[in-house]
Amino acid sequence: MCIRDRGAGPHSLCTLARQARNHGFRGILGPGYPGHDDHTHVDHRSGRYWSAPTCGI
Q1: 41 given a catalytic annotation
Q2: CB–CB of 19/10 below 8 Å?
Q3: For the chain, what is the total number of helices (H) and then of strands (E)?
Q4: Which residue segments constitute the domains of the chain, with CATH numbers given?
Q5: What residues have CB less than 8 Å from 15, skipping those under 6 apart?
Q6: What is the pLDDT of residues 2-49, one digit of tens each?
Q7: Which of 37, 43, 45, 51 could be cross-linked to 33 through a Cys-Cys bond (beta carbons 3.0 to 4.6 Å apart)?
Q8: Among 11, 23, 36, 41, which one carries the catalytic annotation?
Q9: Do 44 and 4 meet the contact criterion of CB atoms below 8 Å apart?
Q10: pLDDT for position 12
């Protein structure tokens, strides 16, 4: 799943990334990860890979 920022800024994307982390998503790529400052990817995968440094993830 990919969520794009529609003008709300990185704070809403960080909220999404934190909620995804708290709800069991094992793949999170968001603000601070190369090419992901305007959107966040979340998915289910076999291993955990989180990278959204702007969000502290």
Answers
A1: no
A2: no
A3: 1, 4
A4: 2-55 (3.30.1380.10)
A5: none
A6: 555 555 555 689 999 999 999 999 999 999 999 998 889 999 999 999
A7: 51
A8: 36
A9: no
A10: 86
